[in-house]
Amino acid sequence: MIKLCITIGALLCGLVTSAQPRQTYSFNAGWKIHKGDVQEAQQPSFDDKEWRTVTLPYAWNEDEAFAKPIHEHSTGVVWYRKTFVLPDDVPQEKVFLEFEGVRFGAEFYLNGTWIGRHENGVMAAGLDISQHVLKKGENILAIRTDNDWRYREKATNSIFQWNDKNFNANYGGIPKNVWIHFAGGTYQTLPLYSNLGTTGVYVYAQNIDISKKRLDLHVESEVKNETSTTSKGQFLVEVRDLEGTLVHTFETPFSLAAGAIGTIRGQSKLENVNFWNWGYGYLYTVTTKLVVDGKTIDAVDTRTGFRKTAFRDGMVFINDRVLMMKGYAQRTSNEWPAVGLSVAPWVSDYSNKIMVESNANLVRWMHVAPWRQDVESCDRVGLMQMLPAGDAERDVDGRRWEQRTELMRDAIIYYRNNPSVIFWESGNESISEEHMAEMIAIRDQFDPHGGRAIGSREMLDSKLAEYGGEMLYINKSARHPMIATEYMRDEGLRKYWDEYTYPFHKEGEGPLYKGNDASAYNRNQDQHAMETVRRWWEYWKVRPGTGRRVSSGGVNIIFSDSNTHYRGKENYRRSGEVDAMRIPKDGYYAHQVMWDGWVDPDPTGLHIIGHWNYAPHTKKDIHVVSAGEKVELFVNGQSQGFGDRSYQFLFTFPQITFAKGELKARSYDGNGKVLNEKVIQTAGEPYRVKLNYQHGNNGLYADGNDMVLVDVEVLDKEGRRCPTATHMIDFRWDGPMEWRGGIAQGPNNYILSESLPVEGGVNRVLLRTRYGKSGKMNIKAQANGLLPDSLSWEVSPISEKNGLFVKHAGIGLPANMDRGNGLHGEPLKQQRITLPIQKVRAGANQEMAKASYDDNELTDWVNDGTLQNAWIEYTLDKKSDIDEIDLKLNNFRSRSYPLQVFVDDKLVFDGKTKTTLGYYTLEIPRTQGRRVKIQLKGSSVIAAENQHAEIGGKKLDDGVARDDSGAKGRLSIIEIDIHKKL
Hints:
With 982 residues, this protein is mainly beta. The protein contains 6 helices and 58 strands. The protein folds into 5 domains: 173 residues, Jelly Rolls (Sandwich), CATH 2.60.120.260; 109 residues, Immunoglobulin-like (Sandwich), CATH 2.60.40; 280 residues, Alpha-Beta Barrel (TIM Barrel), CATH 3.20.20; 123 residues, Immunoglobulin-like, CATH 2.60.40.10; 150 residues, Jelly Rolls (Sandwich).
């Protein structure tokens, strides 16, 4: 059976020589570029023989990725030119070009004629070249690109808000794929609204029954008839499972008049459905065919998956189960050293899958929409996405707001069939209710049935947004889910283990940031990992199941070190749980432990932070991350006792004396049953270099974009990695690949260097294939005093036709099914119930008192600033056992309040609150009562200075905006929840 050759939005496809008229090829090869503006470069007669030949996707300034800080990325006008001839054996009635993205603005010329413009710098755009392309002979496509940071829209002179030097790394030119589509005169349109104004195919499910594994499948396809006669026939839908087996077909008649455009719809029941889920990237191929007189005149493949979602009661439901959001706010560029974002398809899978392997279930792409390759990769690996349009840091109006709505429209149309897209993000800051309504209308027009929530960062008091969530802080809601959109901004190099290991990095040692202490941005690995625990613990405390109002989780900023705005010593962002080459830091493994579950983690999770190679007589604190109840530590079999537990998951063993041999951690449940053991050993002296390589499971191809990752380790004689090794590694290679290297701390970050050091005994380098160059590749690595190592592998040829080719590197990439279908886990466990409040009275400002429990985290009750009036009393619906009180106090991250709490006039708490990222939990002896009184005992004090500044120097929010500094007797409560434990 002939493989159908196009997926919605132009997934790559194989060479097709059957009667199927629809054909798609990669348009990536044979481009020439010139840096700088050139007169008449659009003309076919222009001489470009001295220009450099490149293969797309290719950013002309890719060499600067991680070599330069983001604000120094090179900008300017760069021309791209390509000469091509149409193949004879393709339909030529309609010819389209699809650009997955151009940075930033581009002017397109075909054979000297201007054919279009694209300016948002983010999303895909299409060009209909049917009337301009020469069906015989050479065509010249010339593109003038301009990636100026202040690029202005030609028609309006407006800048684009998201073209920002802090966030949106400037990889200029054409850093994403280009495709050429050939179709007949009656065809299903492409989902490319910019320039083409078309919406393509939309596949969605309704009446989903998870337990019975069935749903109603709906398919809509926008069709154009650009012939001179009516097209009349059958709209045929074929459904194939992950293995390619045909599992269902249905059809409906259609008729479309000459010159008309219309939407054809079909629906049918689908049984025995495998549902897409977290870590379970089950995908179907839905083929839509136009059949006239028994002959297929057009066919489109849509790769999609089916899942059931709900967003209610402050929680997210996937396939009828509550799933707490856990993951990363990743820069959309998702870049790699010396390559930028233009990686091979399998590398996207590799990077996104290791997010899932850290037990993340959500990636929030930051500020701008991701490119198609990352979106489809998340489908395969089972990683949910929060997908933005474009933004910097605030709501805007006028033309800049219109630009954002147009970008959101294009993104929704392009990605509405991707099951991993769960959230549409309207802004990186709160937007007005009027603007939220506009965004909802766009979603409802183009993706009304996709089961996706639309909201924005913050939106804490919105009546319209379907989700919200602060940047750094913990929010709870009983309505739409609150998801922290970027928590824990701390930075630290993978190279820095601790202050006892070379280069002996003391915690926090580094320059100031904007004149403020910057220790949080210069951490070592011990402290960086511990901070991941401290921060997640605050979200875990108020997770689903802990009351009527809950947090739905959060995403840690960022996953991999990024060539974007930084605060630490280096010239790039080191907040990642993995470094820029995706080698894990210890914080990565801490997340594995804490996140391994839908809400509560698997209790067997266990990780020892750090290594066990120190100088004799070294004493240091050993930290273990565990989801068990107790952890015991052993040095060479001798128990060091049980760890001091803090932040639920962190167990500390103070001042353990190093002894060469074995360090073992053993975890237990509450009954003393052993849950798990982990061991790390002392490595011997460095003895040899070891190389390992990996490429896509679907092969390695000479397409000019496919890649190999090569790991280099320093091992001892027993084959154990030497965790303190920092040897310089010298590489030599020969064969049909290009060296792109890796990254390490040092001159120019060692970008493109042919020698670079290991850090923590390991590093990684990247090589890229050359277009049309296949054959054997050899690489050798050596270091002074160590045995060298070498590797060889083969690069496979590609199929090419008139400069167009099949991108095999993107075909047959495996789906990740490691977590199973996730349908049979335990239901949500209720930990406590929230006791309803019947009424409230306060010492002052009685009219504001209800704001302290109104489920709106932008309102509060505050007294008049006098100590005698600094009290508020809540009367419950009925008398009940009371165990805990959650308080969100104003200035929660900076102020400590001395409080007394009374239950029916009985004193149950007398102490000081601690600073938090949101909620402070007062644990009291179980007390039965109906009235709960909170009273300020004395003046609040600054307990943690709110120094941290955001990009513009503005201090980060710390609750409700009000100056409380001069009010000695001021008590302010944003929200209170009173609980009974179960």
